[in-house]
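To close the section, here is one more complete example, presented without commentary so you can practise reading it yourself. The ligand is adenosine-5'-diphosphate.
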Amino acid sequence: MKKILFVSSEAHPLIKTGGLADVSGSLPKALAELSQDIHLILPNYQHLNTSEEIRYVCSLRVDNRDINIMETRLPHTNVMVWLVDYAPFFNFPGNPYNDANGNAWANNAERFTLFCRVAVEVAMNRAHLNWKPDVVHCNDWQSGLVPALLSLEEHRPATVFTIHNMAYQGLFSSSQYYSLNISGRLWHPNGLEFHGMLSMIKGGLVYADRITTVSPTYALEIQTPDFGYGLEGLLRHRQDVLSGILNGIDVEQWNPQTDPAIHQHYDMNSLEQKSGNKTALQQKASLPVNPDIPVFGLISRLVEQKGIDLILDCLPEMMAMPIQFVLLGAGNPNFEHRLQNFAHLYPHKMSVTVGYDENLAHLIEAGSDIFLMPSRFEPCGLNQLYSQRYGTIPIVRQTGGLADSIEDALPESIANGTATGVSFHQAHAGTLMEAIKRTLILFSHKETWRHLQRNSMRKDFSWHNSALQYLKLYNDI
Ligand code: ADP
Ligand code: GLC
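Output:
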């Protein structure tokens, strides 16, 4: 049995901005089910979504600040969570990283440096918790300093750093670095420095014993200039310790047979029941109720990564077709406005909800026929996995985890029963439009469509296999 400290800045259902929370909420649970002794450590944000008790455990002084450690349970699991409680940095409402206009909080460098320092104290068993991990598993730039700071310690635990997205690196000015009071031994181009700036992600990429990312294809892509954001050389240099492990999903939370957020439960033998969700979705989205019209769904952060510009370029042509489109997302205000304009122009075809709404996300997965995910890059992507589990056929661009989890519906894959979606290569509106048209032809062949749905629903995306791969990695270090 391994003792594992899992360090993350978000975990579902406590706090979530994206897929990192889904992973941090479900991988520790899967590892606990494999009898591992795992603790999650998170900042104690103001509005944690839980009805579990949160209790005070101990206090410690870190960087001249008085920190409390609180303890709670990850809802519906046996995983214990330590919360790093420092009110001036974490006790405020809203998004953990950005203000309401999408601008990063001014003190993010201080906030996440303190979080990492406390994680290091816990990892070194200096936080009065009487528990020393064998492995510290860090995720994304917010916990990147942990492997770097641990590299300065004797008798330290092993470290793993998982990249969920190379586009977010935690870059700060050199003057901020000096004010953070981090050892000068880490400040050099082969350390935390990146072109004269502090790069928190480099703390993980340079100093962790093992680096993973969330799909095998993305592990290769980030070693190239198009996906590496200037760190491809470093990643190539560390390729011997870099690997890709595809994310799993929480198959209890995302289960069309039991999902409390959907209108009618179904499985692959009762797919006709899925239409009850389509009706409910059409009603909820104020679209005409019509069981025959293909409904497209999209749930996403509205950012460049997700190929929203490609969708915008396709929309004039899509709106001329007999389809409906239900979109849920928030992010770039320009994307939000342009999408809302289409919804105003075509109220009978398109519904746009700007905001974050988990129940609606589940209903869109259950009620749509087709799910759109034309990402420019996608480290793993979870919605294409949820879609397959709900018999909602995804259209994806062949990149990262999308390439690793969707089998394109071509004559051969349809014939041998492996096809689960439609994929395209070039990030152009024209190729996306071709994929959409190809999907509509498949949709019109009811029997083929049912086959695709059943192939998708049969696939096993549970965490079990991937959690075993992480366990093997921990054991190999
Ligand atoms: P990323 O982490 O890059 O945003 P993923 O596909 O890995 O992409 O994960 C996104 C997660 O966030 C999914 O669980 C998705 O359902 C959820 N999500 C994204 N936007 C919204 C939204 N506006 N409302 C509800 N859930 C959302
Ligand atoms: C990131 C990626 C997404 C991935 C998620 C969880 O946010 O953008 O592709 O699924 O992390 O690993």
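Once you have examined the tokens, check your reading against these statements. The CA atoms of residues 328 and 343 lie 12 Å apart. The chain has a mean pLDDT of 97.
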